[in-house]
Design a protein that fits this description.
Blueprint lengths: L2 H10 L3 H4 L45 H28 L5 H27 L23 H29 L3 H26 L8 H8 L16 H6 L4 H9 L11 H5 L9 H5 L6
Helix pairs in contact: 1-3, 3-4, 4-6, 5-6
Amino acid sequence: MKLTEYAKHLLLAPNLEDKLLPPNKHWDEEIEQNSIRIQKPGRNERIQFSDKKVKIPRLEHLNLESNRGLTLHHFANHELMAIELFAWAILAFPYASKSIRNGWIKTIEEEQTHLKLYIERMHQFGIQFGEIPLNYIFWKQLDQFHSVESFSAVMSLSFEGANLDYSQVYAKVFSYFGDEVTSEIMLTIFEDEIKHVKRGVRAFSKSIPAEHNSWDHYRSLISFPFTPRRAKGYLFFPETRTLAGLDENFVNQLGDYEDEYTGRVNLESVKKFGLGSELMRKNRLDSHPSQF
C-alpha cells in the first residue's frame, strides 16, 4: 500500500474501525506529488459532525463515573480528528520531508492508541462513542493550514501543546477522586503528546526567518480568531513545553499571553483542587530522552 492510499483510507472510510487501521511499517513507492486537500472526512451517521454544543463536565463533578465518561468522550473526539488531520497533512503536503512524514505516521499510530484507550474506558463508564454530539473544532482550522509550518503551529504547538496542560490537570483530578486507571491513561497520553509537540517543533523550527524568533514566527503562522490562547490549558505547565523542545522565550511569551478571550474559562473549579505546578511522571520522561 502507498502512504497516500492509507491516508485517503483514514480520511474517507466511514466507520470508526476504519479510522483505527494501523499504519504499515513499509510503504510502496509514491509517484503522485500533487497536493490533495480533502475538505471533510468520510463519517457514518453515528460519528458525523454536529453544531450542537455539549459542555465538558466541570472538574469538581468528576467524582461521578458518568461525568468521567462524558469527559473522555470529548477527548476521544479530539483524537479522532487528529488521526484524520495528520492523514490530511500527508495528502496536502506531499513535498514534506521524509522525517516529517514519518513523524506524522507515528503520531497517527499513537493517536489511534489513545482513541482506543478512551473508548475502552468510556465503555466501562457506560458511554458509547458517538452517542454524544461531536464537534469539529480542529477541522474548522483548514484555512489556517497553508504550509507544513502553519499546520505544525496549529496542530502540534497549539492543540497538542494545550493537551500537555489538560492531560496533567485531568490526571491529577482523576487521581484525586481515586480513579488511578483513568489517571494512568491521561499520563500515557501526556507522554506521547510530548513527542507529538516535539515533532511539530522540529518541523516548525526549520523555517524560522533570521529576523524572527520562534514566538514571532509562531504568531506569523496563525490567524485571528485563532490565537495563542488555544496553545495552553486551564493551568499552564511551562516545564512541559521545555520538555517538548521549545525555547525559554517562547515558553515565557506563551505563559504571559492574554487576549479578549482570556478569563472566559471558569478557573474556580481548577483552583479548588490546589493542583500545583509539579508534573506527574516527569522522572520517566527525563530518563528516556531518545523516545522523542
